[in-house]
Amino acid sequence: MQLTTPAHIEEITSTNSQSQSAGERGLRYGLRDGACQAVTQGSGEQYLSAFALLLHASPFQLSVLSALPQLIGTGAQLVSVKLLQWFPNRKALISVGTVGQAFAWVPIVLLPLVIPQWGPWLVVCGAAAYFASAHFTTPAWNSLIADWLDQHERGAYFARRAQISASLSFFSLCGAGLVLSLWQHSTAAWWGFVLIFSFAGGLCLLMALALSLVQGVNPSPTRAVHRRFARVFCLSST
Question: Which residues form the domain of 160?
């Protein structure tokens, strides 16, 4: 019979304490991530159509801008689920997608200035890259947060996150609109969009930095879990 020594008990207690601390940091990161995503959505995503109108987009181009990026984003989620089976570092996958979101704003803002005759279509391409990066992080992010939450705590946690996100999305939407109104009677209206889109991109970089500071990330789920997740995702998408 193996006896448990005081040193062994202390080591187990220390390990459990570190794991709990890492979980708490992860959950705080989840709330901050939700807040940054909400502000990014309110100050960036919601004004893509308005920016396309500034570039004289046609009704057909606006419809493509509304539909195509979301469709590509759904495909990126499926790719992410498959990739998780062969590249189990969820933290790295989330970081890649988040940094991709940040840099997707660069062609959205700059390329239409360089090639104005293709401006609306360049915005569509940039928005597709942005939403593909955003949706790419979703499976890994959900899996990561689920490891830090007890199943009885998830409802309350995600309700709190949704409340924070909804509030910040509203205020950021109003704030970005106020910024754009400063240039509404000016020929330099472009600069208003440059400011709000740059702010959205900067927040994406902050999200990636916040994730890099989170330690003690649990191992990736097994392939069986990934297969179950893929089935659930496919069912929820139909």
Answer: 29-237
SS3 content of the chain, % helix, strand, coil (to 5): 85, 0, 15
Q: pTM of this prediction?
A: 0.79
**Nearest CA among 4, 5, 55, 34 for reference residue 137:** 34
pLDDT digits (tens, 9 = 90+) for 5-18: 544 444 444 444 44
Residue 91 maps to a domain? yes
- Integer angstrom CA distances of residue 151 from 78, 89, 233: 25, 23, 19
pLDDT in tens, 37-83: 899 999 999 999 999 999 999 999 999 999 999 999 999 999 888 88
Residue 2 included in any domain: no
Q: Give one DSSP letter per residue of 9-49, joined into a string.
A: HHHHHHHHHHHHHHHHHHHHHHHHHHHHHHHHHHHTGGGHH
Which CATH number fits the domain that encloses residue 38? Answer: 1.20.1250.20
The first and second tokens of residue 135, run together, are 């949706």
CA–centroid distance for 152 within its chain: 25
Domain count, the chain: 1
